[in-house]
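Quick illustration, no need to memorize.
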Amino acid sequence: MDNLFTEVTSVRFLKIVTDCIGLEKQLCETHTGQLLYGQFFLAATSAGANYEDAWANESMTDFIVKMQLVAVDLRKLKYYLKLITMAKIITEDNELLGSIANETIELLAIATKSIATAKTKIDKQISGRTGILHSIHR
């Protein structure tokens, strides 16, 4: 990872996972809660792992693909958060749940913006090359 923002964001993904671990006992009191916790935990850990992997990729295209996976995982996490509160397995006023929900929304915005920025960079590179090729063929 090449900058402070990326490192700080990586730590935010880790914090979501540790907060999820903090909810394990409450979520796993029932069989349904155990099943939800597994999906919830998987989405959280997968989002962070894909974020780390995105920054390790060598091409902008690979970065976009991995960041799209991050966004998918974060949307899944949002879904499970809604399901947990709607099913009243954990109440909405739970501090850890609220923290995870807020971080998920913010990290999803970061992932979405990163994807858009990377796509813009690729478009500029392509249009720059097309312009050079077009001027050569004149």
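The domain at 4-136 is CATH 1.20.1440.60 (de novo design (two linked rop proteins)).
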